[in-house]
Amino acid sequence: MTNQQDIMHACPACGLLCDDISGDAIARQQFSCGKAAKFYARVSAGAAPAVGGSTASLAEAVKAAAALLKQASAPLVAGSSTDVHGARALVSLSHATGAAMTHINASSTLRNMKVLQHRGWQTTTLTEVRNRADVILMIGTDVVSHNTRFFERVVWVDEAMFTEPAARKIIYLGGDKLNTKPGVAPDGRAPEVIACASESLPEVVATLRALVMGKPVTAETVAGVAVSSLKSLADTLKTAKYATLVWVSKDLHYAHAELTIENITETVVALNQKSRAMGLSMGGSDGDTSVNYAHTWLNGVIIDAPEWESHDAVVWVNSYSPNAMPPAGTAPVIVLGAADSTFDTAPAVVIPVATPGLDCNGQQFRVDGSVTLPLTAAKPSDLPTLSQVVALIEAQLKGDLA
Fold first, then answer.
1. Which of 10, 247, 319, 393 has the fewest beta carbons closer than 10 A?
2. Are 373 and 364 spatial neighbours (Cβ–Cβ below 8 Å)?
3. pTM above the 0.90 mark?
4. Distance between first and last Cα of the chain
5. Is residue 5 predicted with pLDDT exceeding 90?
6. What is the DSSP letter of 163?
7. Domains of the chain, earliest start first
8. Judging by beta carbons within 10 Å of its beta carbon (0-12, 13-18, 19+), is residue 309 exposed, middle or buried?
9. Cα separation of 152 and 155, whole Å?
């Protein structure tokens, strides 16, 4: 019989899906990552369905949810904070109800997807970065605010197949108040920092791309950054054995940020004419990578950002972000969410569902999209899964229509 404390878990608290979390660490609440500590400290006990703010049975809540969806002319499945299995169930629900579907991170995901659709890109995986990268350029992000253990798991590792990890050169370009401490090498070597305000990144990254391409740049400074510094950076990237340009779309929160991402990915293309370089999009939260992939497989299109005012009923799923809710004034709202969800205003219907990796098993795509990892229930509960609840709602809808 397997000792529960010996089981290793993949942690869905961020897109890294660190798979070295032991049952013993969870039991003792001993983590090197604050996101993991917060996730595994969550409690699911005592949650019950509710209709109109009053406790109800699961059957009553399912019936009420189905009635609202049947009456709606333009429902929306939103939040969609779940795993692959939950995402497939939500796509099924959207088909059954004629609902549009979106994700809590749809706006930032779209910044990447617009570039991928328009130009394509050359990106790498976490394993390739770990084994090959000798120069890592962080553009407008420190990564660790999203993926706490990035340097621990990918950069400052004990060994790599094709490079010396301790000798890697880390460079930060732009961004405000970045935590650059994790970029300090094991020997104490400080990372290079080329500072500029986040809103200046479009001009700075465009200039870097031009310099990599060998285009003439006559200005001495761009958005307060010395062009000589960018020229030195371009030379460093061109002489690297495996340069990796890293960004997090969530950190590029300004108008037309997809153009900055395109300049990053096209810089990679230019570098690959004579050397070797790859892009790496980091971040990933609330199962956004998994949900976008599942939605694209099953519908043939990527998830879009919602227009809240055009929908007359919202199914909100928040397995990984219990405090997240739709914009104020959205009604009616059917919450199929984490047991520890909090509300300023009682939703029309609440049905607590199991959170993958905490209450139940599941499956998640890592942020680099290269692998799926199984999620093992750290604190198994009796809560129904999202797939089970959606199946009950669909059965109720079919029964009402029969």
1. 10
2. yes
3. yes
4. 48
5. no
6. S
7. 48-105+288-401 (3.40.50.740), 109-282 (3.40.228.10)
8. exposed
9. 6
**Cα 324 to Cα 272: distance, rounded to the nearest angstrom:** 41
Backbone angles phi, psi at 307, to 5 degrees: -110, 95
Give the largest CA-CA distance in the chain. Answer: 73
What is the reported pLDDT for 4? 61
Provide Rg for the chain, Cα atoms. 23
Q: Which residues pair with 364 in a beta bridge?
A: 373
**Tokens representing 135?**
């120069």
Residue 311 contacts residue 73 (beta carbons within 8 Å): no
Task: State CA 299 to chain mean position distance.
Answer: 20
Residue 399: predicted pLDDT = 86
Instruction: Say what the pLDDT of residue 306 is.
Output: 85
CB 147 within 8 A of CB 289: no
Q: What is the pLDDT of residue 1?
A: 42
- Average pLDDT of the chain to the nearest whole number: 95
14 contacts 38 by C-beta, under 8 angstroms: no
What are the tens digits of pLDDT across the range 302-342? 999 988 989 999 999 999 999 999 998 899 999 999 999 99
Q: Is 155 helix (H, G, I), strand (E, B) or coil?
A: helix
- What number of residues does the chain have? 402
Contacts 24+ apart (CB under 8 A), 191-198: 194/225, 194/229, 194/230, 194/233, 195/225, 196/223, 196/224, 196/225, 197/223, 197/224, 198/140, 198/174, 198/251, 198/252, 198/253, 198/254
> Across-strand partners of 243?
135, 277
Res. 50 pLDDT band, cuts 50 70 90: very high
The residues near 36 (Cβ < 8 Å, ≥ 6 apart) are 11, 13, 18, 21, 148
Section 196-211 average pLDDT:
95
**Which two three-digit tokens encode residue 361?**
């098993």
